[in-house]
Amino acid sequence: MSCRIPFWLALAASLTAAERPFLKSELIFALETWHNHASSIVELPGGELLVCWYHGSGERTADDVIVEGARLPKGKSAWSPRFLLADTPQFPDTNPALFLDSKKRLWLMWQAIVANEWHTALTKYKISTDYRKPGPPRFDLSEALLVIPRNFAPRVQEVFEKLPPGRYRDQVLQKASDKYFSRMGWMTRAHPLELPSGRILWGLYSDGYSFSMIAITDDGGKTWSASEPLVGAGNIQPTLVRRKSGEIVAYMRDNGPPPKRVHMSESKDDGVTWSPAVDTDLPNPGSGLEAMALADGSWLMISNDTERGRHSLAVTLSEDEGRTWKWKRHLELDTRGPGAGSFHYPSIIQARDGTLHASYSYFLNHLKPGEPRKSIKHAHFNTAWIKEGDPK
Questions:
Q1: Which of 119, 127, 128 is nearest to 94 (CA)?
Q2: Nearest-CA neighbor of 205 among 166, 143, 254, 248?
Q3: Smallest Cα–Cα separation from 304: which of 341, 277, 350, 279?
Q4: Eight-state DSSP code of residue 78
């Protein structure tokens, strides 16, 4: 007696793991009262995942803040115990970003905060070729990132003199020619972008000016130069995506006045000069985001898709290089609104198997004081899951 398998069942069985919609997620470590924030994720050559974040008793006033990491071996479901990645004794270390370059070198870039305020940040970086063993990588190189912004004062004046008079405008114009303020305080947030030429563009931002800049290296980190500033009304924490035409798009957090939108700037010369930053149609509550080009040519963005609050974390897809965003689905959505959970500062990569891995800060703000409420969360999913959309 034969049994005919229904067409829909046969079709479902034929789909590969990358094609079937799925989402898996877990906390990298148990919720705790310590502050854990600003993660970054990479896939290592053997398929292992590495995530870092900063950990301590505070962000702006404490000196016990360090950069930690954990590993998820390929095929495993449990993350390794946490380990130390960076610690500048007696100074807080913050905003780490990981990167695996085309030569399979592992980078860690982060900030030591010199005087407990973001505009006193000193960016540092390490590079490792010995990172496959359990625990922290062994770093071969450790340096401070010191760059002089290109055409800084003239570019700032060109854009800001067109803005209406106000305290922020006047302060920025006054500081634009100050060597200390233009050279210090630049911080990382998102993954860098490596161009086909081997040039690496690492997006930086300044809380002192509330706009962005790009650090540029053409020799694998031996020497650095800087772009012209990406100037606008509160555009920070740039994430970079390259169009097929070679044009580079920077998407940025909105740190300025309403309406709260993702900011955008464009470069046509491999990241050296940039158009004035403008608002897009995408909402942003003043929170970090990340965008990237996927292997099939589509673009992905992960962000808080609200104008207020970080209780909603969404992934969106574009099939026309960011001109429109056709699909959206939420990794986190707390319907109680801005006062409840905060799911923010995401980092995202596409693995070699085509699936997506994200890490992000996971805060439960509604709990009682002193209760464990902070961790870093990892989510594994695919584009098919995004295209399904949110459950009705």
A1: 119
A2: 254
A3: 341
A4: S
Give pTM, 2 decimals: 0.94
- Angle, vertex CA 357, rays to CA 356 and CA 362, nearest 5: 135
CB atoms within 10 A of CB 6: 8
- Name all domains of the chain by residue range, CATH numbers in brackets: 35-144 (2.115.10.20), 146-279 (2.120.10.10), 285-392 (no CATH)
Positive or negative torsion for Cα 386, 286, 266, 143? negative
- Residues 379, 389 contacting (CB under 8 angstroms): no
* Torsion angle of the four alpha carbons 62, 80, 85, 315, in this order, in degrees rounded to the nearest 10: -80
CA atoms within 13 A on the CB side of 10: 5
From 385, 374, 364, select the one nearest 314 (Cα to Cα): 385
Q: What is the residue-level pLDDT of the chain in tens, covering all 392 positions?
A: 444 545 444 444 444 555 899 999 999 999 999 999 999 999 999 999 999 999 999 777 789 999 999 999 999 999 999 999 999 999 999 999 999 999 999 999 999 999 989 999 999 999 999 999 999 999 988 899 999 999 999 999 999 888 888 888 888 999 999 999 999 999 999 999 999 999 999 999 999 999 999 999 999 999 999 999 999 989 999 999 999 999 999 999 999 999 999 999 999 999 999 999 999 999 999 999 999 999 999 999 999 999 999 999 999 999 999 999 999 999 999 998 888 899 999 999 999 999 999 999 999 987 787 787 999 999 999 999 999 999 98
Reading the block at residue 310, the tokens are 């970080």
CA–centroid distance for 288 within its chain: 6
